[in-house]
Design goal:
This protein is of the alpha+beta class. 65% of the residues lie in helices and 13% in strands. It has one domain (10-100): Orthogonal Bundle (Sec63 N-terminal domain-like fold). This is ArnR1-like winged helix-turn-helix domain-containing protein.
Length: 109
C-alpha cells in the first residue's frame, strides 16, 4: 500500500473516482495545470448543464483541498505532490473505465 502523509493514494483516487463531478473537476485540473477558479467553473459548465455549478465546484474543490490533492497558489489551483501521485492512479482508473465502455465486445450486447 503506497501511503503519503498517512493517506493511501489508491484510497484517495477511489474516493475521487466514485464522485462523477469530482472526477470531472480533477480531470480538468490535471489537464489544465495552474487553473484559476473562474476558468475551472467555466470548463465544468461547458461539460455539465446543471444549476448551481459555481457552488458545486467550490464544494468539490474544498474536498480536494481537504484531501491534500490540490492547493492554492494565490488564485491558481495546482496539484500537490500527493495530488500528482493520486492523478497517476486516477488516470489509470479512467483509462480502464474508458476502454471498458468503448470495447467492441460491449457494443455487441
Amino acid at each position: 500500500m503506497l501511503k503519503v502523509f498517512n493517506k493511501d493514494i489508491h484510497e484517495t483516487a477511489s474516493k475521487i473516482f466514485s464522485d462523477g463531478i469530482m472526477t470531472l473537476i480533477m480531470s480538468i485540473i490535471i489537464t489544465n495545470s495552474n487553473i484559476s477558479d473562474e476558468e475551472l467553473k467555466k470548463k465544468v459548465e461547458e461539460k455539465l448543464h446543471l444549476d448551481n455549478i459555481p457552488e458545486t465546484v467550490k464544494e468539490k474543490v474544498k474536498i480536494l483541498e481537504d484531501l491534500r490533492v490540490i492547493e492554492r497558489k494565490g488564485n491558481i489551483i495546482v496539484l500537490t505532490s500527493f495530488g500528482l501521485k493520486v492523478s497517476k492512479i486516477l488516470k489509470d482508473m479512467l483509462k480502464v473505465y474508458y476502454e471498458t465502455f468503448t470495447s467492441p465486445n460491449l457494443k455487441k450486447h
